[in-house]
Amino acid sequence: MSVLITGVAGFLGVHLASALLKDGETVIGIDNLSTGQIRNVRKLMDFETFHFMQFDVSDRRVLEFDLLYDVREIYHLASPASPKYYQAFPFDTIRANTDGTRNMLELALRNRAKLLYASTSEAYGDPERHPQPEEYCGNVNTWGPRACYDEAKRMGEVICYEYHHRFHVDVRVARIFNTYSAGLRNDDGRVISNFVTQAIGGEDITVYGDGSQTRSFCYVDDNIRGLRLMMKSKETNGEIINIGNPKEYSILEVAQLVKKLADSPSRITFHPLPKDDPKLRRPVIDKANRLLGWKPEIELDEGLRRTIDVYRAEFAAKVATPSSLR
């Protein structure tokens, strides 16, 4: 039996694959490398039980690969996930979450496999209900720069619903709230990677708006543990579950904390808030706790310290390497 991870070269994909491989699983990873990094794939090549396919899951021909006939678990993570990339590649984002999701559900139907679809807290949009439980239907703008991601993820959930109810596919949906660690690309525009990179480099820490908007940050190890529990549990079949940290911080608080932990001389500067940027974001995780016994264990201070240490080491190594060798 093998496990398939789409989007394996991305942030969550490489962490999930590494965890599964270390536990002795055979993992097949698919990624078209549009936003994923080949260096992430190379990290996994040390495992003999890892197989990589560079391919686009939204292409129907993905179902023809012989290697996939033994797949029994599918983690469908493929999609640009940061505003910088999904706004640059809107149609690729839509296809990955619609055509790609349907292809993976067809594979699950054919193989009688279980599927976990990685949705997002962005399904709640700019919420009018706070905090957000799974039954809240959201407040999403279909006519704006974030819609290609928000609405594509919501449509992916709809396709999962139809396959579950019409064809009895074993499927579960994880609505993932902001996840972070050192594995985030330092150029992807997400808040933690931005702040840490800027603080270490002594650059201005850029806060959008007045910094009063809130987020809930979940360290990647906690997130991966939640996803794996969702896949293994029979009780999650046909369920949507929030995976995130219920502790809420303002963006300004996070900027100040990063500056303090990094002992950085950086100034905090303020810039216009992007269109449709959510003002509030915090998950209700009662369902995850009840069905999985799951809750986050790593506090923001500790997660940021780990992240800063790795980014700082990478920054030092880059500075020490002549530009001709980079």
Topology, pairings included?
Blueprint: E1 2-6, H1 11-22, E2 27-31, H2 38-44, E3 50-54, E4 71-76, H3 83-88, H4 90-97, H5 99-111, E5 114-120, H6 147-167, E6 170-176, E7 179-180, H7 191-201, E8 205-208, E9 214-215, E10 218-219, H8 220-232, E11 240-243, E12 249-250, H9 251-261, E13 268-271, H10 286-292, H11 300-320
Parallel strand pairs: 1-2, 1-4, 2-3, 4-5, 5-6, 6-11, 7-10, 8-13
Antiparallel strand pairs: 9-12
Helix pairs in contact: 1-2, 1-8, 4-5, 4-6, 5-6, 7-9, 7-11
Describe, in short, the structure shown.
This is NAD-dependent epimerase/dehydratase family protein. Its cofactor is NAD(+). This protein is of the alpha/beta class.
Q: Which structural traits does this protein have?
A:
326 residues; alpha/beta; two-stranded parallel ribbon
Describe the model.
- Its cofactor is NAD(+).
- Keywords: Decarboxylase, Lyase, NAD.
- Residues 3-244 form the NAD-dependent epimerase/dehydratase domain.
- Pfam families: Epimerase.
- This is NAD-dependent epimerase/dehydratase family protein.
- This protein has eleven helices and 13 strands.
- It has a domain at 2-180 and 219-245 and 281-293: NAD(P)-binding Rossmann-like Domain (Rossmann fold), CATH 3.40.50.720.
- The protein is of the alpha/beta class.
- It starts with a strand and ends in a 6-residue tail after the last helix.
- The longest helix has 21 residues, at 147-167.
- α1 (11-22) packs parallel to α2.
- The mean pLDDT is 94.
- It has a seven-stranded parallel β-sheet with strand order 3-2-1-4-5-6-11, sandwiched between helices. It has a two-stranded parallel ribbon with strand order 7-10.
